[in-house]
Amino acid sequence: MTNDTNGRAPGRSARDDALDRMIAEAVRNAPEASPPEGFSARVMAGLPPMRPSAWLRLRLWLTRPRSVTFTPARVLPVLAVAVVLLAVGLFLPQGMDGPGGSATPDGPTLSTVRFVLGDEAATARTVSVIGSFNDWKAVASAMRYDSDAGVWVLEAQLPPGDHEYMFLVDGRPVADPGARLTRDDGFGNTNAILIVNGRHEETL
Amino acid sequence: MKRRCSLILLAVFLTLWTVRPAGASGEAAEACAPSAAVVGQVERGVADPADARALLSRIEAACAEGFPPAPFEGKVAEGLAKGVSPARIVRTLDAKLDAFRDGAVVLRDCGAPVSPQILTVLGEGMFGEAPPAMLRDYVCAYASRQAGPFLTGLEMTLLLHRAGFDYGLTRTLLDAGFESGSLAPPWRYFVRVVLVARQRGVTDETVTRTAIDVARGGGSPSDVSARLGFTDRDLSGRSLDR
Predict the structure, then answer these.
(1) Which of A25, A44, A203, B202 lies deepest, with the highest CB count within 10 Å?
(2) Which of A63, A64, A201 shows the shortest C-beta gap to B236?
(3) Could you give the CA distance from residue B228 to residue B239 in angstroms, rounded to a whole number?
(4) Do B16 and A81 contact (CB within 8 A), yes or no?
(5) Structurally, how many domains does chain A consist of?
(6) Which ipTM value was assigned to this complex?
(7) Residue A198's domain is classified under what CATH number?
């Protein structure tokens, strides 16, 4: 906006300026008076309510300082519950194998299984049973030779489940000739399948 | 003792705890790494580092595809224990991985329940002698069943197949077991009853008919053997002639 040479805004006359000065003088000289009682409240009540946004309310709720009092009597039970929940969270999933989960190898569920391999001529020097139950480790299941019966024998404690195994005769894998359930091992050999079904139904 | 704090601090703490790197606990870093036991076996049993690397990489590949590593680690340990060459073990692991992939595809196509146990049993079945068409038929036929009975029926089917039991008879028994809700875990080893019955001259058809009656009544394989005239003691290996 540009003013004329008298400093007057365009479209305004000298009369307009005089009227402004007169009104300003009247306001300055008017007696001071307090608003009527309840005026502010009535004005505020007349305004439409303005609800802050959900995000603003959440931010205010989160950032509002709170006083928390710690006393040993209150802290200890909370800590105890937290420790229990943590322990449950850490260890429970590992124990939930479900119906198809592997059996626990703990004492009460183990069954005694007797492995026997005939060798009347006593030609073998060492014989072991290697299987899924001993991670295929020969040293874990070395058999002893029963010279009276002419057989190699091993009694092992196995958990319930179906296990695959072979004999290891002087380092060579040999299939169990008496096995009635077998499976190709993918290497050209035949594993025997041993089913252990619990304490009272030892093996098949 | 009094402290003033805000819930935003608590939220920040919980968020950091939740999104903390899993590797901090060592789980993620080790999730797809072969177990220390099998690594030790490979290091002791395989002279050429390239062969050792090839074996371990197959375990990592299986794990990376979401398959349980244990069956693959076990196959490595089995091959080394039997004196199989590393190259042959690698080929077998590749074939096994393909079988597990085929099993996963069947489960997905049929909308069947999936769990590490089901993946393992089905993958082992695909890797073994079981016809893929038979396994697909089983999976698709009972895909809507709960994971527990589904797994039991799958294991039962595979063991019966290995015993040469007719799949048609297996299906009639499975239908009865699923419909009556009696397919509990003991049925997994129903094959034991079949083998003993055969030894005593009882036909597979007779065993199946008896088992269906028992299953419809909510019974177990022990009840089947009792009806056929032999007891649990007869199922013991000690009583079987070899």
Answers:
(1) A203
(2) A201
(3) 17
(4) no
(5) 1
(6) 0.81
(7) 2.60.40.10
